[in-house]
Structures are given as C-alpha cells and as structure tokens.
Amino acid sequence: xxxxxxxxxxxxxxxxxxxxxxxxxxxxxxxxxxxxxxxxxxxxxxxxxxxxxxxxxxxxxxxxxxxxxxxxxxxxxxxxxxxxxxxxxxxxxxxxxxxxxxxxxxxxxxxxxxxxxxxxxxxxxxxxxxxxxxxxxxx
Amino acid sequence: xxxxxxxxxxxxxxxxxxxxxxxxxxxxxxxxxxxxxxxxxxxxxxxxxxxxxxxxxxxxxxxxxxxxxxxxxxxxxxxxxxxxxxxxxxxxxxxxxxxxxxxxxxxxxxxxxxxxxxxxxxxxxxxxxxxxxxxxxxxxxxxxxxxxxxxxxxxxxxxxxxxxxxxxxxxxxxxxxxxxxxxxxxxxxxxxxxxxxxxxxxxxxxxxxxxxxxxxxxxxxxxxxxxxxxxxxxxxxxxxxxxxxxxxxxxxxxxxxxxxxxxxxxxxxxxxxxxxxxxxxxxxxxxxxxxxxxxxxxxxxxxxxxxxxxxxxxxxxxxxxxxxxxxxxxxxxxxxxxxxxxxxxxxxxxxxxxxxxxxxxxxxxxxxxxxxxxxxxxxxxxxxxxxxxxxxxxxxxxxxxxxxx
Lengths: 139, 405
What we know:
Chain A is of the alpha+beta class. Chain A is built from 5 helices and 3 strands, in the order αβββαααα. The radius of gyration of chain B is 22 Å and the shape is globular.
C-alpha cells in the first residue's frame, strides 16, 4: 500500500512525541486501542487553568504509519485550541488531511477517541462530568 | 558495494537466475512447438526439452521422471493431490489429517473437501511450530486416506519431522502428501528416503519462473493415483490435461539442476548470513525468534519485536528493504498471521513480527545494512510506543483493561 506524503512526513518527523505528567490536575490522558488489535494510542493534553486553552499536547502510539500520523496530526491541531473546540475535531478531518485510504479510517477514529478520552480525563480530574459520546462505529 | 533495494522476501518468490532465463529463451522462439505434437520436429524439440527438464526435476528430489506431473504451480499441485486422492480413494475412506499451520492452498482445499462430505482433522502445532507425532498417531482412523503435512513452513521456516510422519501414515495404511514448496532446492529432499507418496513444489521459489510447478506422484510401493482435476487432452499421464508450458518447464528443470549442484554450498553461505542477522537483531531487548531454530530452513528468520507494530516497523525501511510482516495491517483481512497464532503467540506478538527470507543473491553488505536499519527503526518506534514506556515502568500490560475496539 502506498502512503500519502503527509503520512510519511508525520511518520518520519512525528510532532509532539512524549509524555506529560499525568499526576498534574491540568493534564488529561487518553489511552485507547488494544495491543491485540495492533494499535494503542496515548494522547495527553495540558490545559492552561486561566484561559482554558490547550497549551501542550503529546502522544505515543503503537501502530502502523497511519496510526502514528493520525495521532501526531491530532496533537498539532489540539495545541492552542480551547477544550470546547478540541471536541469538534472529527475523524473525517484527519482522513481528509492525511488522505487515508478506507482500510485506515479506523486509525483516525482511534485518534478522535483518544482526544475525547483525554478531555474526559481532564474533566473528571477537575470535578466536571464525563461527556457521553456516541460509540464509535468502526471498532 | 551495497545494492539497494535489498530483497529479503525470498519465501514469497525468488528472482530468476539468469542461467535459467538463458535456458528458457529458445523455447519461446525457435523451439516453440507443442510438446504433444508427435509428428513434426517442432513438437519433437519441445518434447525433448520437457523430457530433459522432467529428469532434472526428478533428480533433485530422488524421483523417477515418470513420477513428475507438471502443473501451473504449487497451489494447483496441492489441489490436485488433496482433491485427487479424496476422489480416487473414496471407497477406502474419507478422512484426511493436516495441520493448522499449513498454507492456505492446503487449508482451503481441505475446507472444500469437508463441504463435499470429507472429514478433516487439523492438528495443532507445538510452540516450536512442529506437530506432535503422538497426536498424529492418535488422530489416525481406519478411514484415514491421507496425511497432509508441509515439509517446511512458509512463515517461520520450521521443517517438520517428515520421515517420522510418513512412517506413521504408512503404518496405518494412509498416503502421505507434503507441500514442499519452501523446502525443495533449499534442503535435501528425497521422496524415497523421506517416504513421500505425493509432493507439491514450484519453480519460482527456487530461482525459476512463475507459473510452473509439479506434483510428485509415487508409482511404486505403493502405486498412487489421483483423479484429474483438469480434464482435457490427457496430458501428464492423464492426471493433468493442458498444453505443457514448455519454456516454463525447461526453466524449472534448469532451476532444479542448479539447486542440485549448488544447494549445499549455498545453504551454508546463506545460513551464516541469516545467523548473523538474527544474532544481531536479538541483541535488541524483547526480540524473539518465532518457531524452532533447530529444525529450520537455512534462509529464514521470523522475529517478533515486542511493543512495536509490524507495519509501522516496515514503513521505516521498506523503500530500501523488502521483508514481510505477520501484522494484520499488511494483510487484507486485518487478522494477524494465523501461523504465529498457532504457535501460541498472543496477537500483540503476532502483530510485531517480521519475516526475513534470504536468498541466492543476498550479500553480506545487504545484511549489515538491514541490521542497522531495522535496529534503528525498532529503537525509534519504541521511543514512540506507549506500550514500551509502560513495560519499562513495570506495568503489567496483561492486566490493563483495554477499551473494546
């Protein structure tokens, strides 16, 4: 299978690989996927307490090139966004940006799930309710 | 000098040896006749080419030339052996024994036979990829007509105890068929010494052309017969009709002759490189060889690199190095390798595997390059892997409740 140039670029030069201190109250962590399925994504956001903006985002991903690229792109998009706006990131935006073929759409779904999961973790830590999301259909 | 890209997928197919091509060329142009045309020189020349090739092929596996039935490849030979025996020996029984790690050409043919009313036992394999002879013995029934166990596995290269298997089949009055596609031309295969009754193999795994293979069908002790699966002009002792692929068969013959002459030297040269590759890659933490390393083809190594995913790993170097992965992502089905799972590997390890298949034209420089590239990519991806980080922190990944997915 041929990868798009953007996937290759994110794979070769992934943005924001790393780990944030998950014990901090303003850090939300999302861990999605399963080793058995061949992909696990961990995505973290650090929220500025005063502005409510995401000031940092990091990821680590076990998976194929498309999964790595999807999470790398997600962290780029998250930085500088408000938590509310972050919730609007749709997996199809990732598919479009990275030119993912149909068999790789699940990578983008996983990235969207990781974002939502990180936001919910942040919300729970800060005394807010978990947002109920629709079950993703692909998995 | 280093020649790129590096081809280490010789279990999928091999490049053709230029000497094979040279032998074939006249049979496309000057000697283009139909080998079945008995009444003119064009036919005679073609027939002569086929006869000579049949001898070359037979000699490599210790058979009589009359016992070689040319086919379009190993898949066809597998089909002919299984379906042909099932039909021919229907009055004796309907039970076939095979193993879960067989090639799909055998497994799917067995599934087809089950639909026709046949009974098939699929033996599990041990952790090392070999079948348990006691289990085979226990699976034998009075109605067992055929034991079908591959000579060497295409994914992990393990060599089954063929002599012992054939002895058990014989003891119980069943025939023994082996798919020897990966073994012929790589290790000594002798149909008499190994007690083989039927054997499938193909040219393109031994530096010959694609589209030509053979089924060995024993003629003495016992005389084995199969029902034709391709009806027509009665070619190949009426077991496989169809105009013979003369250039392909001539190439197959030449490829077999070269293997007869060079296999021993080639095997030891390639296995040294394979061992170097394997030893170097195993220096990485959490890297494991899949399948037996004692009973194995000289040119294959299948390694799992824990906590990195196979396709992601391939992407790091597949512009310059061709290998194959057991990862689901590389297959259409999204299921990881059933062979690796049959060894008892978890899906995670199966997803993390690479198969290295060296060959006649692999060089030392290419192996050094591969060691560097693969090692660097594994290290890079582990830095990016949440599982690696968790493992390093001592978290038991088995105990995590992974989100349903």
